[in-house]
Write a structure and sequence with these properties.
Shape: globular
Bound molecules: 4'-deoxy-4'-aminopyridoxal-5'-phosphate
Distance between the termini: 27 Å
Structural class: alpha+beta
Helix content: 10-25%
Order of helices and strands: EEHEEHHEEEHEEEEHEHEEEHE
């Protein structure tokens, strides 16, 4: 599920493709001194028709703009310019054998404590194997998600991943692949880089973003798929103890995709439950173009961007 850190040949910075080693920031800028940035992780898949499409790209752009607004980082890039940058870096690095995941980040390169803030749009893209992720063991972390008035989960900024990182390290020491973070009320917020789906008595539940989760694009898509399949889907707070007695559990996100859960805090769960297995199979058929859903959006990269193919 996790991306291994790769060193691709190129990155995108300052409005153009640059060699990887030249994609550097100055130690004096707020991107470094205060970790000031907002970002989006986006995923591209090869489909069965031979097209390479980036899923929900416009929704990612809109969330990037919302995160930037909340941190008062100007974002002068239009959607068309953002899309062009994405197509350039992915088109530069793409190979036929593998899918790609890209990180598109607005790093603050000029300004000080909110004065004269300027950002650069910097993109890195990584190869991903075309595999459907296997079920994993999940734990519940002792680390908490911050509240909306401390470090809002709604803002996709890298400082928001400090607790996730600590939670993953905590999980690793207990042999869990990922961890659930609870919020300050002891209820389920989300996992370290994905949202939580729980099934009880034939209904899918997920916590609303106000419980301390990112406004997930994948979750909205899974909700739409559930609607198509007439499976009830409800957003409501989830107690810690509810996930321990769930009929089925999964995590979902752009990078995580849809991962079924084998066990939670050492308690076995059924990773082959009917509801989440059905959604998982449908998810992977849709991203590969084997099936359609009215809610699915993909931006096909035009051939002119594909440098090596
Ligand atoms: N929560 C966190 C903390 C995440 O990093 C992600 C991945 N972006 C998600 C949830 C899922 O969001 P999305 O489906 O939009 O990728």
């Amino acid at each position: 599920m996790a991306t291994k850190l790769q060193r691709p040949d190129y990155a995108y910075m300052g409005g153009k493709i640059v060699p990887w080693d030249q994609a550097v920031l100055h130690i004096g800028c707020e991107a470094i001194t205060r970790g000031l940035n907002v970002f989006e992780g986006i995923k591209g898949y090869w489909d069965i028709h031979g097209n390479f499409g980036i899923v929900f790209l416009e929704k990612h752009y809109k969330r990037l703009v919302r995160s930037a607004r909340l941190l008062h980082i100007p974002c002068p890039w239009t959607y068309e310019q953002y899309q062009d940058a994405v197509f350039q870096i992915i088109g530069q690095l793409l190979s036929k054998e593998r899918d790609m995941w890209a990180r598109t980040t607005l790093y603050v390169v000029e300004g000080h404590w909110g004065e004269g803030t300027k950002a650069d749009l910097i993109l890195t893209a990584y190869h991903q194997d075309k595999v459907i992720p296997e079920p994993i063991d999940l734990g519940v972390s002792t680390w908490q998600r911050a509240s909306d008035s401390a470090l809002p989960a709604r803002i996709k900024t890298s400082s928001n991943y400090q607790m996730g990182r600590l939670a993953r390290m905590e999980g690793k020491s207990r042999n869990y692949s990922d961890m659930i973070l609870l919020n300050g009320h002891g209820r389920v917020a989300e996992a370290t880089g994905s949202c939580v789906l729980m099934v009880r008595d034939g209904v899918i539940y997920t916590p609303p973003a106000s419980e301390g989760a990112l406004e997930s694009i994948t979750l909205d898509f899974i909700e739409a798929m559930a609607k198509t399949l007439k499976i009830p889907f409800v957003r409501r707070p989830i107690d810690h103890t509810e996930v321990l007695i769930a009929d089925e559990l999964a995590i979902c996100g752009t990078l995580a995709e849809l991962v079924l859960i084998n066990s939670i805090d050492g308690l076995p769960l059924n990773p082959n439950g009917p509801i989440l297995t059905t959604l998982r199979e449908r998810f992977f058929r849709i991203v590969r173009g084997e099936e359609t859903d009215p809610a699915f959006e993909t931006s096909i990269i035009p051939k002119k961007y594909m440098k090596k193919l």
